[in-house]
Design a protein that fits this description.
This protein is an alpha/beta fold and 197 residues long. Helix content is 32%, strand content 19%. It is globular and about 40 Å long.
Length: 197
């Protein structure tokens, strides 16, 4: 892999597990010599928006300026990125590529993450936060109907991939491994597709 990127992984509510594709991806990328930052938020079972934003900012501030900077954010981590983008981040925090994976929709309610709801939709903020942003969801995600995901992609004016029968694109849905995401990090090529497991 030429021109090795810096990759920041932001996890979902209640943190990551060893079986989740983000953990698998972190291991694969580290093996390839990529600098991987698997962001572990303080108190992942009871996230607080201000604290999570501050921790995200700490990691972005520490990211190398001389490498391609890539962010992959899953579920509540993706909602966090939408809040970050809506705050119109400073130019120094801008990254090159972002993949938003299965951000929850308005019908998903979890008492411990109410501060994250609803995630703001700010197209100008999205463009300010990253040079390129892509959304990937499934057609049967219990936290966001596929038509709502399509509306989100349209409102943000970003590319969108739909994974057939992918659930919430987490370990419980069979996404402990996700080679297509590894290839996206490596090459930036799209569209993304399924084949987790």
């Amino acid at each position: 892999m030429a021109g090795l990127p810096y990759v920041l992984l932001a996890h979902a509510y209640a943190g990551d597990t060893a079986q989740h594709w983000q953990s698998w991806l972190a291991g694969r990328l580290a093996h390839l010599g990529v600098q991987v930052d698997l962001l572990t938020f303080t108190d992942p079972d009871k996230p607080e928006l201000d604290f999570w934003l501050a921790e995200l900012h700490e990691h972005l501030d520490a990211a190398p300026a001389d490498a391609e900077r890539v962010v992959l954010a899953h579920a509540v981590g993706a909602a966090l990125w939408l809040h970050h983008a809506a705050a119109r981040p400073a130019p120094a925090r801008r990254v090159d590529r972002v993949l938003l994976v299965a951000p929850p929709g308005a019908q998903w309610h979890e008492a411990n993450v109410r501060e994250f709801e609803p995630a703001p939709i700010d197209p100008a903020g999205i463009r300010r936060a990253a040079a390129y942003t892509r959304l990937v969801t499934s057609n049967d995600d219990p936290t966001r109907p596929v038509h709502d995901a399509g509306l989100l992609a349209a409102e943000l004016d970003i590319d969108w991939d739909v994974i057939p029968d992918g659930g919430q694109l987490n370990a419980e849905s069979g996404y402990g491994r996700w080679p297509a995401v590894l290839e996206w990090v490596r090459t930036g090529e799209a569209p993304l597709h399924g084949h987790g497991r």
